[in-house]
# Entry
Amino acid sequence: MKRDEAIKIVQPALTKERFDHTLRVAETAVELAGMYNVSKEKVELAAILHDYAKYRPLEEMRQFILSSELPNDLLDYHHEVWHGPVASIVVGEQFGISDPEIKGAIRYHTTGKANLGTFEMVIFLADYIEPGRSFPGVEKVREMAPRDLNHACWMVSRNTIQYLLSKNASIYPDSFHAYNYFLQKLNG
Ligand code: DGI
Ligand code: FE
Ligand code: FE
# Structure
């Protein structure tokens, strides 16, 4: 699947704001790809598709998770953690995308997970630092991004978990696994 084809399909599934975010994630991911030696073309495609399922009706996503190989424990957590896993399967079924890095990057872009690969980390980080984001502390993550991919991803996990704790929100286990994994690599 080519970039322009993906854009044509994704755009009508998203709001204007979400589509603009998607294009900024793609640009940011391509920049990071140059720094960390991953395929720019592939990373751009993953970025364009990463939020494809964001506005699927919740009931549809729930049924989708129940009838797919995705873990049903997703349903015990906030629906924000569903759209990545759902999109990772949809792009396989709908567009025949089978590349494990593209599917993994889409699947884990919200939470991360242990043993996240470089390609997936680029999307995880780009989604957080794209220029439209104004999270508290995002500037420090942007400074770290070109210096140390793992350290920057650890900051993303830490900031997200801190934010969720401050809201008394539930936290999907993969988010903790990502945090611990990046920390072990930092200290390793
Ligand atoms: O889809 P985006 O808005 O571009 O960004 P995203 O997919 O990274 O995150 C969407 C939301 O999900 C964001 O508000 C933070 C939230 N989130 C991230 N990890 C977890 C989470 N929510 C819960 N409940 N649990 C998590 O582990
Ligand atoms: Fe998302
Ligand atoms: Fe996003």
Q: What stands out?
A: The mean pLDDT is 98. The pocket of fe (iii) ion (ligand 2) is lined by residues 51, 54, 83-84, 109-110 (CB under 6 Å). The two ends are 38 Å apart (CA to CA).
